[in-house]
Write a structure and sequence with these properties.
With 276 residues, the protein is α/β, with parallel strands linked by helices. It contains ten helices and ten strands. Strands 3-4-5-6-7-8-9-10 form an eight-stranded parallel β-sheet, with helices on one face. Strands 1-2 form a two-stranded antiparallel ribbon. Bound molecules: NADP nicotinamide-adenine-dinucleotide phosphate. InterPro entries: AKR, Aldo/ket_reductase_CS, NAD(P)_OxRdtase_dom_sf, NADP_OxRdtase_dom.
């Protein structure tokens, strides 16, 4: 094992690696099998998929083919928008387990908040049931903004343990991060490598100052503020590069410089507007 990952702790005491591998747009078969093998060999222990990615089966097969012990990894999936609501959330969770060839998940997340508050709470009640029945070790949400989290917290029995959001220096919402910190909700960063658009001059110059790549600087910037990035790569060298971020520290001044780059620049929907 090459990367040395430390563990964070969720608000229910469950441990979670400080970074992981996202598999959005990773193709089932050789591409997934090889990427999962390289990742595991290099020290990755967290794998993030979703019903929406249509590759849960591919990930399940890759984990099986590579004989990766289930208890060694933190496995995450997400309920698809079309499966929200109490009954379908429970049923589709079972379908996810089958596709992933497992009998529990380490985390199950609500993929999008949507604008229908009643549906949001029905979905969350199902998440609570899965959690209290011991089928999932933690539950959480994705793309929830402060007011959506406030509503959920005011109406839930089990508090969300994770909010997975787009988080880069260009999409850095201090208010949301502060709210999550105060409420012990672990933030997880999706799209941490600017979705591959890494030809950003200022980031590149700063990274060169540390003798690191832009990808490494962006990932280190996340973990250094207690946020779990889940970069996607299918490439052996890039997988290794992305996990090799524990041998340097970004100065406080540079952290502030990166935080100040925020432009509220999203690469996906605005959670306050997007509905389904
Ligand atoms: N909850 C949500 O709503 C949500 C939304 C989007 C994504 N996600 C999750 O977050 C994960 C990460 O986000 P993402 O996949 O959209 O974007 P990302 O991780 O920011 O970027 C992935 C892209 O960067 C490339 N890349 C990886 N490492 C690199 C490196 N060291 N140097 C240069 N290029 C590199 C990859 O290409 P190669 O594969 O060829 O290396 C791929 O094209 C997803 O896989 C998914 O699990 C969640």
């Amino acid at each position: 094992m090459k990367g040395r990952l430390i563990m964070f702790r969720l608000n229910n005491g469950v441990e979670i690696p400080e970074m992981g591998l996202g598999v959005y747009k990773m193709n089932a078969g050789k591409e997934m099998d090889d990427a999962v093998r390289y990742a595991y060999e290099q020290g990755y222990r967290l794998f993030d998929t979703a019903q929406m990615y249509k590759n849960e089966s591919g990930l399940g097969e890759a984990l099986e083919k590579n004989r990766i012990p289930r208890q060694d990894i933190f496995l995450i999936s997400k309920v698809d928008n079309c499966n929200q609501g109490y009954g379908r959330t429970i049923e589709s969770f079972g379908e996810s387990l089958e596709r992933l060839k497992t009998d529990y998940l380490d985390s199950f997340l609500v993929h999008w908040p949507g604008q229908n508050r009643e549906r949001m709470l029905d979905t969350w009640k199902a998440m609570e049931k899965l959690y209290t029945d011991g089928k999932v070790r933690s539950i959480g949400v994705c793309n929830f903004e402060v007011c959506q989290l406030e509503y959920l917290l005011a109406n839930c029995k089990v508090r969300p343990m994770i909010d997975q959001i787009e988080h880069t220096p260009f999409m850095h919402d201090e208010k949301l991060l502060g709210f999550c910190r105060e409420n012990e909700i672990q933030v997880m960063a999706w799209g941490p490598l600017l979705r591959g658009n890494l030809d950003e001059d200022e980031i590149g110059r700063m990274a060169a100052g540390y003798n690191k790549t832009s990808a490494q600087l962006l990932l280190r910037w996340n973990v250094q503020q207690g946020i779990i990035p889940i970069p996607k790569s299918k490439n052996k060298e890039r997988l290794l590069q992305n996990i090799s971020i524990s041998d340097f520290e970004i100065t406080e001044e540079d952290m502030k410089r990166m935080n100040a780059m925020n432009q509220n620049k999203r690469t996906s929907y605005d959670p306050m507007v997007f509905d389904f």
